[in-house]
Write a structure and sequence with these properties.
This protein has about 140 residues and is an alpha/beta fold. The protein is about 30% helix and about 20% strand. Helix 1 packs across helix 2. The C terminus is likely disordered.
Length: about 140
């Protein structure tokens, strides 16, 4: 393997949160993508908790409905912070996690290969038919 070569990584778990998951779900639905094929996909509501307007409730309803139809587990408002819940309750040694939250790598403490990504990258693995993410091999450091 050389630096810059693409490698295939099977992604076992995916996570989105309400700040990223809404657009992922809407795009998946618009493209007619099928149910989740990763071993486990989770949709957390942990960022937009204020409920200051109807938009928050609408967003949460959309996430809940998408989860019911496409398979991600839905973690409702007040359950906790996505990366902390993932670390404490879901992550396991040897599993891979791709999450649309910058703190996803926290699950590395459990021995998981955990990577944060943009929502659109998670869409390509979690709520779609794909079950492999493509990454570039890291450049060697000297």
């Amino acid at each position: 393997m050389r630096a810059g070569e693409e490698i295939a990584i099977r992604v076992d778990h995916t996570l989105t949160q309400d700040a990223t998951g809404t657009l992922v779900d809407l795009r998946s639905e618009a493209l007619g993508l099928p149910r989740v094929r990763s071993e486990l996909a989770l949709s957390y509501v942990d960022h937009d908790m204020l409920q200051a307007s109807f938009e928050s409730a609408d967003e949460h309803r959309l996430l809940r409905t998408f989860a019911a139809h496409c398979g991600p587990l839905y973690s409702r408002p007040g359950d906790g912070i996505c990366h902390q819940l993932q670390l404490e309750r879901i992550s396991a040694p040897g599993k891979t996690l791709l999450g649309a939250d910058p703190h996803t790598s926290t699950s590395g403490a459990m021995g998981a290969l955990a990577m944060g990504a943009r929502g659109i990258d998670v869409e390509g693995v979690g709520p779609t038919a794909a079950d492999t993410a493509w990454e570039s091999a890291p450049m060697p450091t000297t």
